Amino acid sequence: xxxxxxxxxxxVLVSALALVPLHVHAAGELTQPSASASAAAAPAAPASLPxxxxxxxxxxxxxxxxxxxxxDRVLERLTxxxxxxKETARTAVAEVTPAVVPAVRARVQELRAGLDRKxxxxxxxxxxxxxxxxxxxxEKAEKAEKAGKEKDKAGKDEKAAAKDDKASKDAxxxxxxxxxxxxxxxxxxxxxxxxxxxxxxxxxxDTWRDLVRLLAMERMLTAAGTTPAVRELLQMYSYFGELLxxxxxxxxxxxxxxxxxxxxxxxxxxxxxxxxxxxxxxxLLGRAIPGEAVGVTDPQVLADILRAYGRTRDVDAVRxxxxxxxxxxxxxxxxxxxxxxAIGEPGIWQLRDAYLNQTGNKAPREFTWDRIARELxxxxxxxxxxxxxxxxxxxxxxxxxxxxxxxTSAFDKVLARSPVFERRKEMAPAYVAxxxxxxxxxxxxxxxxxxxxxxLDPKGEGARKIEAEIAYLEGVTxxxxxxxxxxxxxxxxxLDPSNERAKRALASLEQERIAPQKSSLHRxxxxxxxxxxxxxxxxxxxxxxxxxxxxxxxxxxxxxxxTPPAPDAPVAGAE
Length: 575
Known about the structure:
Elements: H1 2-18, H2 35-40, H3 65-79, H4 83-93, H5 101-114, H6 117-147, H7 153-172, H8 178-188, H9 193-199, H10 206-224, H11 227-240, H12 245-255, H13 260-266, H14 272-285, H15 290-293, H16 299-312, H17 318-322, H18 330-343, H19 348-359, H20 369-384, H21 386-400, H22 404-417, H23 428-438, H24 443-456, H25 463-480, H26 486-495, H27 500-559
Helix pairs in contact: 3-4, 3-10, 5-10, 5-11, 6-9, 6-10, 9-10, 10-11, 11-13, 13-14, 13-16, 16-18, 19-20, 21-22, 22-23, 23-24, 24-25, 25-26, 26-27
């Protein structure tokens, strides 16, 4: 009976323990049942959670010397009297690349210090008046030509009646406000200001030339159309104010969505006039609130918009930004996460709401904003890349069992689906181990494995040793091809002084170079000896040849003596 009661007591105890809540959340963290337990041990972030990317600050690039030279050449042609040069320069202004932006910034800074604002305003006003008059005259001429020389009398009467009606309406219309008059004035400025100024040339005036350069560079920035270019347009407004306000507004109207990122940043510009200007332009473009601003089609522009909200730490945009943090486009996903990391603590309540929506549970109180963000991004990645994570786990299991072929095969599939997979550093050792098994039979395949390992973890602890192995295999491959080179082997030893194989290969290579030199020396000595013997023989033969000639001549003289003349023979010349 006592035995039965003991079993019953044990059963009750086990049942009670089974009913204790574990408070496990979907992301793997535990909530503590009491405040004391919470204070005793706060949950640590799992190692597999993605790191928060950092939003890079805006860095102004230094102008390239070649870009400055080309910019000066184009601007100089615009201000000269050569019509052909002007036409070429006009084409160049409209066809610039984003590389021109730093050069334009440098030249605008120079004009900012030297431009006579008052005189420039006068020249611009005169040119605009003349330009508008020219446009009106041209429009009238086109209408007259279209209507023909003879006009119908009924048509004239109708026009006259229409004019009278318009005049009566204008008389009864209320007076326009200052803002309305300003809008009408802005709308009245049809045509291109740069063309107006060029149509009234004053090449001897420094102010006129500076004004042409300023308007031309404004159009170059519009043609570049990047977010850095629009930032410079806003800077021009802070420098020159009302002189360029209307024209800058028209340039931004041409850019439309491409101007939105810089305009969002401009709402927190150092200059108040730029803040007001940027807010007004966003309103005119219909992009004043985050939900409207992200309604663009260009992925690069959208990524710049998300980063702009991050730079301005716009808490109202956090919910919209979070909607892109799980985008299939890596460009948008990274931009959104950079923006969330830049906004930081002020966005914690929106992050908590997103966590609740994703998991159905509230985030633990001890979770900081960055922990919640990492948990969210980790869950997003898990859901989006479930198959990729499965392959990663399979590859890791094969690597743990030293099955390197299977491990690298699984990792290759992971990288094919997600080239910037956050756990890619964990793959590098498997590729290194697989390379070691291929070095003797397939050095080319081993090299490929090592290079992939280096790309996966270029700054890891074993990166220098991997580089050394690559250099060693390159050196061995060159030796096998019959084109030995000691540089790769020397590099391998410099990167990894403990690489004994590279040392042996280099020593062997040096020994092979010394051996041919010795054999060549022996051949040279033997050839020299043969040549010396031949030379001595030639000298000996040359000295003996004259003596031999004289002996031969004497022998011939002894054997055939001269015949004396006969006694009775007549002597020549005797009478």
